[in-house]
Write a structure and sequence with these properties.
The complex is a heterodimer of chains A (about 120) and B (about 260).
Chain A: H1 5-26, H2 31-45, E1 47-50, E2 53-56, H3 59-67, E3 72-76, E4 82-86, H4 87-114
Antiparallel strand pairs in A: 1-2, 3-4
Helix pairs in contact in A: 2-4, 3-4
Chain B: E1 11-17, H1 25-40, E2 44-48, E3 55-57, E4 64-66, H2 74-77, E5 82-87, E6 90-91, H3 97-101, E7 107-110, E8 113-114, E9 132-139, H4 142-156, H5 158-164, H6 174-185, E10 198-201, E11 205-211, E12 214-219, E13 223-227, E14 231-233, H7 236-239, H8 242-253
Parallel strand pairs in B: 1-2, 1-5, 8-10, 10-14
Antiparallel strand pairs in B: 3-4, 5-9, 6-14, 7-9, 11-12, 12-13
Classes of the chains: A alpha+beta (about 120), B alpha/beta (about 260).
Chain lengths: ~120, ~260
């Protein structure tokens, strides 16, 4: 019995190491899942309101308004309503909103790339 | 030009909470109310025991009573001109819903839902787009009133509507009633709801933490790093736990 004592101790020690490893693996986080969730959140954040309409700040929308040749226009919002837009004002709001959301995305994404375990 | 004499429209959040033998919804709603006050800076009204007609919950907490029959009364019971109607298990951690209040639409319902792993429970409604009554935003307009009146009618005549819309489930859910009512109000045409996806944590939760503006969601077999956003939590046991209260305490302390 005295001979087996240290062996049992060793086995117990290995088992507790394995249990610890299993716990750590369970807490490992999946980069691809986190990346997708982050993208969904940024899509939410890209939405902004202007003059009672809801818009998603996209490069296409921004470019279209920048290229428009008069100071007032009507844009279709997310809810398919025509919204009266002051071109300069809209460019400011849309541009700032786009910049803010995309900067946030970049920062959060860089953090996520480094996160393997939580 | 804005009319400076026009009275400001009141805004607030309405929660329904009716305790069951297994779930203390009032406790859950109190914590939800703290998060709402902190995040949206809006008053919250918790409506309790509005209807004693019990339903039977299928799926989560199998075959326990479930009081979900009074939601159609939100239009009349809401003291606000502009209301965000929420389930008490929807944790408000960002202010994106305020954007919908700033638009001119009469109402909007959440119509996209996703779990962290990208899956959602299969809806029993097949013939029209599904909506999630977890978050409904409405203003006191005739169109919004029509929506809630229709939800009441669908609830009263659920057997008929169940067959008409080929619902697979016998169990009444507000999600189905709002989906059908929304479809009818909009002339049987698909309509844009809240234009982003609701995140639903559909597995039992071990722990929820907030670190560096990220939420760490620990489930039994995995963990997710979620950017700070509102989350729909299915696990009612976690929502009744002291750990959840501690999580809300932490959120409300972060400046």
């Amino acid at each position: 019995m005295l001979f087996f004592g240290p062996i049992y101790g060793l086995i117990n020690s290995y088992m507790s190491d394995i249990n610890e490893l299993v716990d750590q693996i369970k807490q490992a986080t999946d980069y691809q899942i986190n990346k997708r969730i982050l993208r969904e959140k940024i899509i939410t954040d890209l939405h902004f309101t202007y003059n009672g309409g809801l818009f998603k700040a996209t490069p296409e929308l921004f470019s279209f308004v920048v290229c428009w040749n008069s100071e007032e226009l009507f844009l279709e919002d997310t809810y398919q309503n025509p919204i009266k837009v002051n071109r300069k004002e809209f460019i400011d709001v849309c541009g700032q909103h786009y910049q803010m959301a995309m900067n946030h995305w970049h920062i959060e994404h860089e953090q996520l790339k480094r996160t393997r375990k939580v | 030009m804005n009319n400076s004499n026009a009275p400001a429209k009141s805004r607030g959040v309405v929660l329904f909470a009716h305790n069951t033998p297994t779930v203390n919804y009032e406790r859950i709603a109190e914590q939800a109310s703290r998060l709402i006050t902190y995040t949206l800076n809006l008053p919250t009204t918790i409506i309790t025991a509005v209807d004693d007609t019990s339903n039977v919950r299928i799926g989560y907490a199998n075959a326990t009573p479930w009081y979900n029959m009074g939601r159609y009364r939100a239009y009349d019971l809401s003291p606000y001109d502009e209301t965000i109607l929420l389930d008490s298990d929807y944790l408000i951690l960002d202010n994106n819903l305020l954007k919908i209040l700033d638009t001119t639409i009469d109402y909007a319902i959440m119509d996209k839902n996703q779990s962290p792993t990208g899956t959602v429970d299969t809806p029993a409604i097949l013939s029209i787009p599904m909506v999630w009554a977890t978050a409904v935003i409405f203003k006191k307009t005739s169109k919004a009133k029509l929506l809630f009146d229709l939800v009441a009618r669908i609830q009263r005549n659920y057997g008929y509507y169940k067959r008409l819309y080929h619902l697979k489930s016998n169990n009444f859910r507000n999600d189905y009633a709002f989906a059908i009512a929304d479809n009818i109000v909009n002339g049987y045409q698909p309509r844009q709801g809240i234009p982003w996806t609701m995140l639903t944590a559909d597995k039992p939760i071990k722990k929820l933490e907030i670190k560096n503006n990220n939420i760490i969601l620990r489930e039994e077999k995995s963990a997710h790093v979620i950017p700070r956003q509102s989350i729909h939590i299915i696990d009612k046991d976690y929502l009744q736990s002291d750990e959840y209260v501690e999580f809300v305490d932490t959120v409300c302390q972060i400046k």
